[in-house]
Design goal:
Keywords: Membrane, Mitochondrion, Mitochondrion inner membrane, Plastid, Plastid inner membrane, Repeat, Transmembrane, Transmembrane helix, Transport. It is found in: Mitochondrion inner membrane; Plastid, Chloroplast inner membrane. It is a multi-pass membrane protein. The protein has one domain: Mitochondrial carrier fold. It is 64% helix and 6% strand. It has twelve helices and five strands. A three-stranded antiparallel sheet has the order 1-3-2. A two-stranded parallel ribbon has the order 4-5. A hairpin with a 2-residue loop joins strand 2 and strand 3 (36-42). The chain is globular and about 55 Å long.
Length: 349
């Protein structure tokens, strides 16, 4: 905020004439220009804001290719989210097996006594190697497809279905198609330990003996589980972000807000699609333990509802959400934060 003062104007510092400048309580900086004096007033709020901006350190890394920026951000998001929820995953696995106790607290105490903190993160490196590329492809696909299908301001929607719903489904399919062979090889190595010398050896032997199609055996059931969850998750996330901007009148969404929005989206998608997951597992079990064979997913859902009630469709939801909900929130928060750090041009830094 600037004010020009000519030589004939009473001096704001001169109180003898009874004149008090309305900006006398502001920070004033004098810049002499020959006979005139330029007085620049800056309010305390603006001054403190400028000081904060100067003091704050912002990390910016130049990555010119937008696709590469999304892939890097997605990989980092996947690695960080998986590492953060590794202890929850470890406790959940022990609870399912029943090897270290019957409650989360008991399992945690037993792991800490026997293995310490390292025990909570056992096997995390392998999971990070597996999840990082998967999450990178998933978030990249969602961002790319959603940007292409979303209408610009003032334009009508290109499709009758929400763009984020289709983009989420495409993200789930893309991620699964790209990483499914690695999942299959990992399972083969775990079960048939003596047949393979490593991941590369397993890939080569499977391709030579059984052909490329073997790498995608069992893909259909996996897609049935992935597509509804991914579509619902990303649709909920995108919708919640739009609602936040509309309610709070803010274009930029902070890290904490993104964490909460992502976690809520994860909770919504997990709850909405969990009955499908239960039905899929019942269909895989088949006729074991006296359970009837199901003709399709709808038949499985109706049979479970008839025999066990509504609670049967949500059996095990708590342990599932214990991992999925925080993982979703952390993943979205890291992804958005990384996109702000990775900039296109030097002047953005």
């Amino acid at each position: 905020m600037g004010f020009g003062v000519s030589p004939n104007t009473p001096n704001p510092r001169d109180n003898g004439g009874g004149f008090k400048a309305p900006f006398s309580d502001l920070f004033v900086k004098y810049l002499p220009f020959q006979e005139d004096v330029q007085v620049i007033g800056v309010s305390e709020g603006e001054a403190s804001l400028k000081k904060k901006k100067k003091v704050g350190l912002k990390l910016k890394i130049k990555v010119s290719n937008p696709s590469l920026r999304r892939l890097i951000s997605g990989a980092i998001a996947g690695a960080v989210s998986r590492t953060c929820v590794a202890p929850l995953e470890t406790i959940r696995t022990h609870l399912m097996v029943g090897s270290s106790g019957n409650s989360s607290t008991e399992v945690f105490n037993n792991i800490m006594q026997t293995d310490g903190w390292k025990g909570l993160f056992r096997g995390n490196l392998v999971n990070v190697i597996r999840v990082a590329p998967s999450k990178a492809i998933e978030l990249f696909a969602f961002d790319t497809v959603n940007k292409q299908l979303s209408p610009k301001p003032g334009e009508e929607s290109k499709i009758p279905i929400p763009a984020s719903l289709i983009a989420g489904a495409c993200a789930g399919v893309s991620s699964t198609l790209c990483t499914y062979p690695l999942e299959l090889v990992k399972t083969r190595i775990t079960i048939e330990k003596n047949m393979y010398d490593g991941i590369i050896d397993a890939f080569i032997k499977i391709l030579q003996r059984e052909g490329p199609a073997e790498l995608y055996r069992g893909l259909a059931p996996s897609l049935i589980g992935v597509i509804p969850y991914a579509a619902t998750n990303y649709f909920a996330y995108d919708t919640l972000r739009k609602v936040y901007r509309k309610v709070f009148k803010e274009e930029k969404i902070g890290n904490i807000e993104t964490l909460l929005i992502g976690s809520l989206a994860g909770a919504i998608s997990s709850s909405a699609t969990f009955p499908l997951e239960v039905a899929r597992k019942h269909m895989q079990v088949g006729a074991l333990n006296g359970r009837p064979l199901y003709r399709n997913v709808l038949h499985a859902l109706s049979s479970i509802l008839e025999q066990e009630g509504i609670q049967g469709l949500y059996k095990g939801l708590g342990p599932s959400c214990m991992k999925l909900v925080p993982a979703a929130g952390i993943s979205f928060m890291c992804y958005e934060a990384c996109k702000r750090i990775l900039v296109e041009k030097d002047e953005d830094a």
